[in-house]
Amino acid sequence: MDNIVVVGGGAAGVAAVETLRAEGFTGSLALVCGEPELPYDRPPLSKQVLTGAWDPDRTRFREASHYAELNVRLVHGAARSLDAAGRMVELIDGYRLAYDGLIIATGVRPRRLPSGHDLAGVHVLRGLADVAALRDAFDASGATGRVVIVGAGFLGMEVAAAARGLGLHVTVVDPLTEPMIRQVGPVVGAAVAALHRGQGVVVRTGTGVTGLVGTSGVGDAAEAEDGAGRVTGVALDDGSTLPADCVLVAIGAVPETEWLAGSGLSLGNGVECDEYLRAASGVYAAGDVASWPSPRYQRRVRIEHRMNATEMGSCAAKNLLNEEAGREPVPFDPLPYFWSDQYKVKLQVHGDLSAECTPTIEEGSVEDGKFVAVFRRDGVPSAVLGWSAAARMPGYRKLLLG
Ligand SMILES: Cc1cc2nc3c(=O)[nH]c(=O)nc-3n(C[C@H](O)[C@H](O)[C@H](O)COP(=O)(O)OP(=O)(O)OC[C@H]3O[C@@H](n4cnc5c(N)ncnc54)[C@H](O)[C@@H]3O)c2cc1C
User: Fold this and answer.
1) Residue 218: its pLDDT value, please?
2) Which residues line ligand 1 (CB under 6 A)?
3) Backbone torsions φ then ψ of 324, nearest 5 degrees
4) Most CB contacts within 10 A, which of 98, 108, 118, 199?
């Protein structure tokens, strides 16, 4: 194999190129980055960068010299199409990259509400440009600024914590009964709600959003570049409207697979790979964009978490080289892990945590603001969750390894 292209310069793509070199691949290697910046890390965006504690440059994985030393060519531009039979990637400017091996690592993009996103003051958060715009909006809304966050997943709750820390008035709205219920279940979700309420955030769970309300845009050109108007509120399913100067829509994400339409790859919930992360001959996928049949959980999964992206990028790279060398591929079978930082609390989850598992608190208590919970299914530990209990987690993690 002489020529490998990795599309997507996030955590998974960077892990893939570094692993390819570490495993001895000496051929031509290109990393296609859809954004103008050097590859950077996303978790600090909703935390240290949004609060102003970190300069955005600090999120870079590596300096340019690192890629030069690895002889990795960074190509800035978005891929438009894939010709899998002809082994060719085409970028939106028409530039073409031929490959013998391809790794797809294009991540996800924020899901949007059906309408209202063109109003000034409405934001999503995925990349550096988004966090700069959101931070400007916070600054512009001043001390009395009213921020409404649509969606109480981990992203929405992290932004709520950051905005509250900046002194803004924050309301979070979600149709589900507790914040982060899909990630931590109802019991810990209730603790997340209490944490935020204790900090002065208004948490409106069990409430749906029916639309965004804004000015008409007529005579409003200074505020809305395209004359679409400015957001003034969020309409709720109980008929009321929450006034808002700034709205963050944090209602999940969809895999970045549009550029793969017509490629012949199986695109369901992301790029559908086998357990070795292979999507087609010589084509692998990794990170948020890819799903695979998990040997551990006996079902197809797609995980949008930071550590998984690195582990997957590395595994995809190894298996691409294994395919070429005629070696046995290695199944991708990690124990999932994610964390979330809100105020001074660090939440950490190892394993598979589904809402139907009931947690037992094994150490500490919700009231103490420090605890470890073990989730069991049919009596067998399936996940462990730490709430400001980082030092205790390695021991509990072992429970999941049998
Ligand atoms: C604000 C924020 C906070 C987070 N916090 C946490 C956290 O606390 N804990 C945790 O576990 N996880 C967290 N995550 C999730 C974690 O960051 C992701 O799981 C991880 O970044 C996924 O890496 P990836 O490489 O798969 O995708 P990405 O990091 O999304 O990288 C994909 C790259 O591909 C590029 N791309 C897309 N389309 C194309 C195209 N057509 N052509 C070329 N390039 C393209 C994109 O521009 C992007 O640079 C957070 C995510 C966000 C957005």
Assistant:
1) 53
2) 7-13, 32, 34-35, 42-43, 45-46, 78-79, 105-107, 125-126, 155, 256, 259, 287-289, 304-306, 309, 338-340
3) -60, -40
4) 108
By DSSP bridging, strand 73-76 and strand 28-33 are parallel
Whole-number average pLDDT of the chain: 94
Token pair, residue 262, equals: 């017509």
Instruction: Say how far apart CA 225 and CA 229 lie, in whole Å.
Output: 8
Whole-angstrom Cα distance, residue 285 to residue 273?
Answer: 7
Pair of tokens at residue 393? 């987690």
Look up residue 155 and give its amino acid. Answer: L
Q: Please tell me whether residue 211 adopts helix, strand or coil conformation.
A: strand
pLDDT beyond 80 at 160: yes
Write down the pLDDT at residue 378: 85
pTM over 0.85: yes
Q: At what angle do helices 306-325 and 11-22 cross, to 10 degrees?
A: 40
HEC assignment per residue over 93-145: CCCEEECCEEEECCCEEECCCCCCCCCECEECCCCHHHHHHHHHHHHHHCCCC
Residue 224 pLDDT greater than 80, yes or no: no
Task: Give 273-276's long-range contacts (Cβ < 8 A, gap of 24+).
Answer: 275/331, 275/332, 275/333, 276/315, 276/319, 276/329, 276/330, 276/331, 276/332
Nearest to 190 by CA among 205, 169, 175: 205
Which tokens sit at 160? Answer: 């709520």
pLDDT tens column, 245-277: 999 999 999 999 999 999 999 999 999 999 999
Please report, as a single letter, which amino acid is at residue 264.
G
Burial (0-12, 13-18, 19+ Cβ within 10 Å), 211: middle
Atom of ligand 1 nearest to the CA of 286: 26
Q: What is the pLDDT of residues 190-207, one digit of tens each?
A: 999 999 999 999 999 999
Check pLDDT > 80 for residue 153: yes
Distance 106 CA to ligand 1 centre (A): 8
**Three-state DSSP class for 254?**
strand
- Cα–Cα distances in angstroms (integers) from residue 162 to residues 48, 99, 179, in the given order: 8, 43, 16
Q: Which atom of ligand 1 is nearest to the CA of 109?
A: 30
